[in-house]
Amino acid sequence: MKLTITCGIDWTEDHHDVALVDETGKLVAKQRIKDDADGFRQLLSLLAEAGDCAEDPIPVAVETARGLLFACLRTTGRKVYSINPMAVARYRERHRSARAKSDHADAMTLANILRTDADVHRPLPADSELVRAIAVLARAQQDTVWNRAQLNNQLRSHLKQYYPAALAAFAVRGVGLDSREARAVLAAAPDPHTAARLTRAQLRAALRRSGRQGRQTLALVAQLDAACRAADDLAEAAAEAFATHPDAEILGSFPGIGPLTGARVLAEIGDDRTRFADARALKAYAGSVPVTIASGKSHLVRHRRVKNQRLAAAGYVWIFGALPSPQVKAEYDRRRDLGDRHTAAMRNVFNRFLGCLHHCLQTGQSFDPGKAFPATSTPPVTLAA
Q1: What pLDDT band is residue 378 in, cutting at 50, 70 and 90?
Q2: In whole angstroms, what is the distance from residue 72 CA to residue 38 CA?
Q3: What's the predicted TM-score (pTM) here?
Q4: In the chain, where are the structural domains located?
Q5: pLDDT of the residue at 100
Q6: Which fold is adopted by the domain 6-124?
Q7: What pLDDT, on a 0 to 100 scale, did the predictor assign at position 99?
């Protein structure tokens, strides 16, 4: 009888431990490979010796879905599972109470998770190359935005200690420390003494240059300036790539979704229509659907904390941008009247939008606000904040 083989790969920066087990959990083969082309060839040879073929490829479980090895594995057409590190740790504790840990043991754990519980884990979606390219750009842009916010807070904290006048000068709606004007002025006058010597002509010239790089404030301004420029450049590239995707028209029909938000949403949900079995699966992935915790007399309904953080962050921006829409604002106000706090109301509207998005993508329809927010007299169940 042909044995069913599963493969687990413990990923590190410069090498990977590979373990293959049969359907009884017995180790069939193991090897440590480097993170290069030779290492990938060794992996393919190891899989082939264990019976791997194009018609029946051996599934692979990994803990980290990034890197060249991961990208190459996806091109082979096999099912690749990205197992949550928390699930791996819990499975490891089931079998080793001493909490011993090694790279080979972790590879064995991944292979055994796939052997026993493959049905409760989802293989990575078969997204198109265009979506993968959009994901690279959108995620890089989102990272630069988060980095920009961190640097902005560092600069604000630093200026508050000795240069509060700079904070007051740029405490204007629409103009912050990360604006081009603020960066230009702070680069030219990083301290009160230098600012006092600036003439109007020099200040106007600095504003025209809008960003000259140049001690601690200058260093922070230079970093912030680089982060802002990178965010702008990546946003433009992500928007251009998003516009070429067939799903861009459907996503763009939703209120609040512009090219950049659309690129972020598409990057996380992909274009594999079989990825989510139903709308609820998509909502759970985004963290908008609640989770029930019931034990004895205790019964709690809470929002999900384990979710795709990037999609959840994009969803908040999406709904915030959609609030000017009358139907969306009415739904938001209705949730607030039912007792939801701001974040809970936003999450409930996001939950409604995700259900509509799943339906529209499956059927090829554009968003219809009349169908999405029909008039109803039946109050919905209020979710916990």
Answers
A1: very low
A2: 12
A3: 0.78
A4: 6-124, 130-243, 248-372
A5: 66
A6: Nucleotidyltransferase; domain 5 (3.30.420)
A7: 67
